[in-house]
Specification:
Strand content: 25-35%
Distance between the termini: 72 Å
Order of helices and strands: EEEEEHEEHEEHEEEE
Helix content: 10-25%
Length: 271
Amino acid sequence: MRRAHRHTKSAAPKPLELTIEEIGTHGDGIARRNGDAVFVPYTLPGDRVLARPVGPNHAVPQSWTVRGAIPQPPRCPHFGTCGGCALQHLEDDAYVAWKRQQLEIALSRRGIHEVDIRPVLRAAPQERRRADFGVMRVNDRVELGFHVYRGRTLVDMRDCAVLDRAIVALLPALRGLMRDLLGNRQSADLLITRTESGIDLLIGRLPEPDRDIREKIAAFAAAHDIARIARRRSSETPEILIQQRAPHTVFGAVTVNIPPGAFLQATKSGE
């Protein structure tokens, strides 16, 4: 008799015991295992952690057995699950020293040594003017936010320590809009930029809107004083759904109108 095949779930990966040696280019702690680097977010040098593998050479901490340094209390309640920020737990002077070190390493790899590096210029909290969110409707609930570290799950964002307050204040209303635009289990992307003339919103992966949807989008723009709402259509030029005024920024003395989806530095001071 032939034995029936049984479908079994693959076993969860065994947690790794890791010691963090340094902070890498993207803000992850770096441990070594069998000679290979393992990147672990939300950790500091000297930490010893049990971490769950989430892909080749990446793991997420589950618990700490040793703290190498006293972490700074993060500004954001989502830090540690949201993949948007890496180093809110790093003490301020150490953060500035790390940023400077990254520049020194980048220059030295290109044969540039012993150069005069000016002091690091800091962006203020809540100065980030640009964000790319994921959004999904699940029944009558809308999840909106950044993804978890190296994952597809959304962190349903209620606040953010780095985003411009005008963007954060718009999130509840955006949930209501996306509840109207998406069907159950449908998802989309939202690229939000605060320009000198107001909020510019680009919606990606939105199904072809009918007249009713277009009217709802126009009403939303009017109610919340949105400068422009456009729809991204794969590789095609974005379609402007409603524009109350042209989004623009100012470079020196020059005012420049911004096309939908155009790149801007994350902060005005960084620009």
